[in-house]
Amino acid sequence: MEVHMTQMRRHMRVINDGDCSLGEGIKVAFASVGLKEVNQHFGLAKGFAIYQISESGYKMLEAVGFDESKVYESGHSEDKLTDKINLVKGCVAVYSNAVGPRAVSRLLECEVHPIKVDEGTLITELVESLYARVKVDDLPGWMRRFTQGKKAKNKNISDASRFDEMFEQDWGEI
What we know:
By secondary structure, the chain is α/β, with parallel strands linked by helices. It is built from five helices and eight strands; from the N terminus they run βββββαβαββααα. The chain has helices at 79-88, 101-109, 123-135, 141-154, 159-168; strands at residues 2-13, 26-31, 37-38, 47-54, 57-73, 93-96, 113-116, 121-122. The strands form two sheets. A six-stranded mixed sheet has the order 1-5-4-2-6-7. A two-stranded antiparallel ribbon has the order 3-8. β4 (47-54) and β5 (57-73) form a beta hairpin. The chain is globular and about 50 Å long.
């Protein structure tokens, strides 16, 4: 038995002209059809918007649409999530209306934090809220740990020294 699932159909990337780079920052993804509000379940999402947010501003980096032409075998195939997981790798978070336990596990393995928000939550409100926090270096503790972990990997810091740095972080309640 075959089940029709999704695969990437449209993928738009914003290309920098060299003068509009935001520098270091965070990337976040939003499960959305229409690119204005979060209105999709992660695993069933027909579209995503990916933003970069830094101290100097924010911008949309990518807009991706999926269609239902890809065919998978029936059952709980891990392949159903692969395209979406690969798309959001490198983001610190993905916002959606819901996300299943398998997807949560796979996202966390890729250091992408799933965040559930109400259907219709405006993407601009979420981005502006994150931007306000990034500007004053007031990221939530979990996001700070995710971003510091990514920076450590990018700098090729050994596992031992990465854990030493984590040990010295403020682990107080948020």
